[in-house]
Structure formats: C-alpha cells, structure tokens
Amino acid sequence: MLGLIFIAAVIHTSSSANVASNTNMTKSLKVLVSSKDFPESGMQVLKEHFTVLQSRYINFGEEGLTKNREELLNLIPGCSALVWVSHHPITKELLDRAGPQLKIVSTVSAGYNHCNVPELKARGIKLSNTPNVLSAAVAEIAVALMLGTARRFTENLEQVRRGEWEIGFDKVLGQDIAGSTVGIIGLGGIGQAVVKRLHGFEVGRFLYTGHREKPEAKDLGAEFVNLDSLLTQSDFIVLAVPLTDETRLMINKTTLAKMKKNAILINVGRGELVDQDALYDALKNKDIYAAGLDVTSPEPLPKDHKLLTLPNIFVLPHIGSATVHTRDSMAVLAAKNVVNALNGKPLLTPVLE
Ligand SMILES: *[C@@H]1O[C@H](CO)[C@@H](O)[C@H](O)[C@H]1NC(C)=O
Ligand SMILES: *[C@@H]1O[C@H](CO)[C@@H](O)[C@H](O)[C@H]1NC(C)=O
User: Fold this and answer.
1) Peptide bond into 346 cis (omega under 30)
2) Residue of 184, 241, 192 lying closest to 209 (CA atoms)
3) Which residue minimizes the CA distance to atom 5 of ligand 2?
4) D-isomer specific 2-hydroxyacid dehydrogenase catalytic domain: from which residue to which, for each copy (predicted)?
5) pTM, entire model
C-alpha cells in the first residue's frame, strides 16, 4: 500500500509538470462538463487549456434525467471531451449528438458500469475513471458501516430518539471486530485500504477472494480463498468489487445461505451486487446478523422500502467518496485525464485507451 501511494504521488507530480510545460494545447477545443456541481478545482485545470461548457443543471436524480439531459444534448455537438459527473447512464443518443471529434469520456468516479463501455469502444472513444484517489474515503465508510452495524447504531439511535433506553447488563449487545474474521470480496484499491485501516482493530484473520491472488496481500496479511470459504468463514463480509455481468447479484439467496448466522454484510461497491429481496429475507429471519450499505438499488432507496423497516440494517446515501478533499482530487484527476487525452498523452487512469 505504501508503494502504491508512492507511485500515485509520482504520477501526480509528473503529470502536473507535463501539463504546465505543454504549450501546444489550444483553447479552440471544447470540453463539456455534465453537471453544475463539478468542483472548481477541476474546472480550473480544464479552463487553463480548453473552452469549457458546463451544464446549468445537476446531472443527478430527476433533474439529471430531464432538464439536464436536454441541456447536454444541446451543448455536446462539437465537443472533444465529456466530463461525466454522475452515475446516470451515458446514452447512445448523447454520443450520436456529440459528433466524431469526441475523443474522451472522463467519468468522475471509480466505477464505470454506467459508461456504456461497448459503445465507447466501438466508436474509438477513450474512457478514464478516478480510482485510487477515493480509496481512503470509501474505506473509511466501510469501517464506519462495520462499526455501525456491529454495534447496532440503527436500533440504538432509535432508542435515544424515543427516550427509551434499554437498561441492564445485557442490553443491545453487539459484536466485536477484534478477533473476528474479515472477508474482503475484491482486494483492489478500496479493499486494500479497508484492510489497512482495520489493522489497528486487532482483527483475527483477513480473507479475500477475487480473480487471482494479489501481490499486495502478503504485506497486508490477507489470505486468498475461494468465494465459498470466504462466505462460510467470515464474520464481516465487505463487498468492494466493481459491478460487472459477473458480479451482478453475486450476493443472492444461495450465497447468503452460506454465511454465518452472525455474519455482517457491508456493501461499498454497487447496489446491484446484492439481491435486495434475498437480503431482506436473510435479515428478517436473522439468517445473518446485519447489513451496512452505502449503495442500494435504486438510489435513492424509496423511504418506504422494506429494507428500511429492519432494525439490523444501516443504510447511507452513497457517500463513500463524499469528502471535500476526495471530491477535489477526483475532479482534478478527471480534468487531467482530459488534458492528456486531447494532447495525445497517455491517460493517467485509463479504462479504455
Ligand atoms: C500541436 O497542435 C497541432 C494542432 O492541433 C497538431 O497538429 C500538432 O500535431 C501538435 N504538435 C504536438 C507536438 O503535439
Ligand atoms: C448467486 O451468486 C453466485 C456467486 O456469486 C452465483 O454463482 C450464482 O449464479 C448466483 N445465483 C443467482 C440465482 O443469481
């Protein structure tokens, strides 16, 4: 992990040097920023080099699908880059409207399941994302959810709000992270950051699963196992994988049934990794102990959704990377990817190149 941070720092510095020393960029190129709430730090990088168009609306929720959609269709013709500040899907219609000079889509997120990769690939459009810079913030939320579920924050907060505290030595007993087995599904940047943060918690064992063993795992003290072993042995199961056809609904009736009765499921990946009906049943029947979700399907989760009626769940509104510092870093990285792409340089964090 230290190695990773070091490499990230080096990339960071050398890329700013590249950007600063290049004088061949032209403001005649147009870049479209898809949402009015893209941070100023990223706007500054873009404005130094390009003519920047920005939507007057946010690219989220209803506004993102209605007014903003119209606005983007009007603004995109002739643009060379699209900075995508949303989890809304990138449509074929929008790409058609852009024209053949569109060279890059830069999504301001680590996940890119919403980016219509096959369509971008077919059109020869590059795609970059913003991994790594958000790993620490998302990992902090994973740990927060572990604590919140293991120590039953939902029920306890409810008691405080009602003014009816349970009393007695055996009141609202929770579970320890100390001595537990923590299983990470997907030991990428976020998964590794979770393990690193938990090292002070005196965890008994770290297990992980994925396509292949990770070289970083040895230093982290994490043991590679298959999915079944992870499911049957872990007290905490942390989902930190991207959403793909393979991972969609990977937590379902069958996989939930393999978990321990005291298992706590944490999801900081994507809501669609989990079959929420099956999760509801497992939590309701106490087949597992609790779930902590930063991501759901859909988002927002309707306030009358059955999952929210359960005491043994802790749900956050997808705030993993939502800190001032992290959002700034994501914006600057997304902007630098655009600068590089339109200047014939390699992307800093490529998905499609
Ligand atoms: C500079 O920009 C022009 C016009 O976009 C381009 O044709 C040329 O290849 C660029 N030169 C370098 C060294 O990047
Ligand atoms: C449940 O998840 C497992 C492992 O992720 C997968 O192999 C299986 O196909 C899934 N079953 C369903 C019904 O989605």
Assistant:
1) no
2) 184
3) 250
4) 37-351
5) 0.86
Q: What is the pLDDT of residue 15?
A: 44
Q: Is the CB of 24 under 6 A from ligand 1?
A: yes
Mutate to test the pocket of ligand 1, among 18, 21, 22, 24 (most ligand atoms within 8 A of CB): 24
Residues 174 and 29 both lie in one domain? no
298: cis peptide before it, omega within 30°?
Answer: yes
Q: Which stretches of the chain score pLDDT less than 70?
A: 1-26
Residues 6+ apart with CB under 8 A from 149: 264, 266, 289, 290, 291, 292, 312, 313, 314
Q: Does 92 share its domain with 184?
A: no
Q: Which ligand is the nearest neighbour of the Cα of 28?
A: 1
Which CATH number goes with the domain that contains 345?
3.40.50.720
Q: Which atom of ligand 2 is nearest to the CA of 254?
A: 1
**Which range of residues forms the domain containing residue 27?**
2-132+325-352
In a domain, 59, yes or no: yes
- In ligand 2, the atom with minimum distance to the C-alpha of 249 is 14
Mutation test of ligand 2: which of 228, 245, 250, 279 has the most ligand atoms closer than 8 Å to its C-beta? 250
Co-location of 187 and 303 in the same domain? yes
Rounded CA gap, 141 and 297, in Å? 18
State residue 26's pLDDT score: 63
101 and 162 part of one domain? no
Q: How many domains does the chain have?
A: 2
Same domain (yes/no): 11, 88: yes
Let me know whether 229 and 247 are in one domain. Answer: yes
